[in-house]
Design a protein that fits this description.
single chain, 2 domains, Rossmann fold, Helicase_ATP-bd, 12% strand, alpha/beta
Length: 242
């Protein structure tokens, strides 16, 4: 593989998982360091890594987002390195090509960039073009993405623009439809089988039905009052003198 050091940028919630997986698969072969924590600890880690060296550094997106002095010092140190691989986990975090996060990560010096995401498109094609522009800035320069965005005239792309986008993405997107892999799948067999409940399941099932019936019973009854409509009305016989 390519010579290190290598950089992994991931959400803070999965940094420890990356460290754990490196330990499971690369123990004794790669020196892996975590760059995350309090500012004082990070500064100490910088000096330690500069002196002892490392093969892989795992850090978070947070240090490419903040505008404070601490985040600036983090980026300054990270930008001094020449990385072999720059791996970005949950890379759809780069979907906004105009964000500070995108711009600050773009200036990292790396021989190869690898983006990991299960949702390369969340809202529109521009987000996918932003990821391709990050990986292949020579092939997909940012101005191409901006031009595509401006030509759309809104959120809905025209049919012609969709066709053009598909041609652009064809060498980079592998889409396998069901008809393409159907021959490789075993025949589908459907079997219906009635299962009998155990005694305890039947008892619980019957009790639920009974309670439901009891709750519905008052609703189905006649709750209207039975007043006596046959009472004798009082008569008034008034007479007048002529």
């Amino acid at each position: 593989g390519r010579r290190g050091p290598h950089l992994v940028v991931a959400p803070a919630s999965v940094v420890d998982n990356w460290i754990r997986e490196f330990g499971n698969w690369c123990a004794g072969t790669l020196r892996v360091a975590k760059y995350h924590g309090a500012q004082k600890a990070r500064l100490a880690k910088q000096h330690e890594l500069d002196e002892d060296g490392f093969d892989v550094l795992v850090t978070t997106y947070a240090y490419f987002e903040g505008d404070g002095e601490a985040a600036r010092l983090d980026r300054q140190w990270l930008h001094t390195k020449r990385w072999g691989y720059c791996v970005l986990d949950e890379a759809h975090a780069l979907k906004n090509i105009g964000s500070s996060r995108y711009k600050r990560l773009s200036v990292l010096r790396a021989e190869q960039r690898l983006l990991l995401t299960g949702t390369p498109v969340q809202n529109n094609l521009v987000e996918l073009l932003a990821l391709l522009s990050f990986m292949l800035p020579q092939t997909f320069p940012p101005q191409v993405t901006h031009a595509f965005l401006e030509s759309r005239g809104g959120d809905d792309a025209s049919e012609g623009q969709v066709r053009r986008a598909r041609r652009m993405l064809a060498p980079f997107v592998l889409r396998r439809c069901k008809k393409d892999v159907l021959r490789q799948l075993s025949p589908k067999h459907e079997t219906s089988e009635a299962l009998q409940m155990t005694d305890s399941q039947r008892e619980l099932y019957d009790s639920i039905l009974t309670k439901a019936a009891e709750r519905r019973a008052p609703e189905n009854g006649d709750n209207s009052g039975n007043g006596d409509n046959s009472g004798n009305g009082g008569g008034y016989n008034g007479g007048g003198r002529g």
